[in-house]
Amino acid sequence: MSMRHSVAPDPGEASRAAFADDVAHALTQNPRQLPCRYLYDELGSLLFEAICRLPWYRVARTEQSLLHTHADAIFSRLQCVSTVVELGPGSGEKLMTLLAAGPDRDVTVHLVDVSPAALDGAANALAALPSLTVVAHEATYEAGLSAIARSHHATGQALVVFLGSNIGNFDPTGTDALLRSIHATLGRGGALLLGTDLVKPEAELLLAYDDPLGVTAAFNLNLLVRVNRELGGDFDVSQFAHRAVWNAPASRMEMHLVSRSRQRVRVRESRIDLTFDAGESIWTESSYKYRVGDLELMLGRTGFQVTGQWQEDGFALTLAEAG
Length: 323
Ligand code: AVI
Hints:
alpha/beta
């Protein structure tokens, strides 16, 4: 395997300034918010890995089982894939499982993630497979997709892999925009493999996002720890409580941090000085859950046609072709 890095990393100062601005903007919205992409500092990423091992959060395990069982069927519906792009590769394990059944030819794999640690981990895992060239893009999904669109000259089919129900963390407008960027990068005839969590009974969803061990609570509260450490905030973490809510009309799980008392919070780098009422909350994440019909509509209106779908335990893997 050979490995290249493209798209220069953001210098630390610039990304901290962007974090400070995003926090200032989001915390002064009504309702108050914090962007979920900031949940994943080093500890946050470890806590998310721990969540994936909990009995109540089955997304990662079910998807891995689907990939393992159906990788051959997935590849049998594709024609001579020469380029694979994974958005948010995590540890690389999912792509490893898929590519183990994969094309019998040289393949270029593009990994797109904002985290250099995730990129290194995934590239190292993929090193076990022969005939791969791995290009790591330390970038947002949009920036990575445009870089790949500019550089992609290979003959053969391109496949974008977007797993883990990561798409569920985008609101509907963001989802359509991202699917359209994926379509533009793929071009006609390219394929998308999308992993999505499906709507299930509320009690199951609440356990998945508010687990009895408190790991998801720690994952959520760690966002305040990060703001304190990186931006000079003075959140009293013990004065906020994790809350998970099923918003049925919007078809999404929401995570919030609820103020336990009336309190003042300052964040130096964001230049904000706020007063929270008791019970006032910060909305930190949405995780959209889908019905099969929603997936077809969403993919259809962004230029894709569904060519295969595999389901297990309230989770769907959908293969779609760019028309
Ligand atoms: C990464 N993402 C798809 C997870 C989700 O289900 O929205 C993050 C997560 N939040 C709470 N538990 C897991």
